[in-house]
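EI: anyone free to look at a 285-residue chain?
SC: sure, send it
EI:
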Amino acid sequence: MPGPYDECLEVTDFCVVEATTYGYRPNLAVTIFFIAIFGVCMGLQLFQGIRWRTWFYGSVMTLGCLGEVVGKLITNALSQSFFAAAVYLTLKHVVLTFGPEHSRLPPKWYTWIFISCDLLSLIMQGAGGGIAASAEGETTQDIGSNLMLAGIVWQVITLLIFAGLAADFVFRASRARSNLPLAASELLRSTKFRLFAIGLVTAYVTITIRCTYRIAELAGGWGNDIMQNEVEFIILEGAVIVIAVLCQTAFHPGYCFPQMQLQHGAAAAKGEKNISDPEMMHTSV
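SC: here you go
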């Protein structure tokens, strides 16, 4: 419902900060810290993407970090969609490495299905945010808010389905562990790959936490108690995604999971690897 501060264009003695949507002035030190972390990770992701030729992974991670930097300067970011896309991409290569026969879906389907769902979520959230921000009436603003909320709910559903399929593959592949190819068995014993797997799971969990928090944040309407709690915002909107990005940067697949490198796919295509299934020819996507 319109209030006495609807015409305020800036915080003044009359337009107090408590009457704004978020109800507080963002903590400058925390904001600078987050920007610095995402800025450094953006540079590292760009470098590693070029160094290891993990073009798609590097691109979405770099764009996600850039989005977080811009988001901290302007408004809430939608960058968890890019970080989620990087997580989705890895399952295809895990399946190719440890045995497509254990998967419910053809490996390439994981990339297309989940990244398409991720893109749909991003479009819904972006469109909803644009409508809500430019709305001149409460009805139009509600339409935008509901579209944003639907996009985030869709994203969480996508994440949960992805987790179910990933867990199913791990379970089925683990039952046939004694029959894994030699290269896959060696990779499984690698400390670097184990760190990559731990980092990947941690990134997935923290991304899911952030998305779930955003559902609660938007479900109560603009200016609700959850939206105006800065401590919760810093932890559940900022810190969790910092953890995700640090894991995805520190345990980069370029050196922890080399099967995702472009040159691995080129070698397979030339027949340098003993791979009988064309699906086993990894690419950078």
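EI: Residues 265-281 have pLDDT under 50 and may be disordered.
SC: 👍
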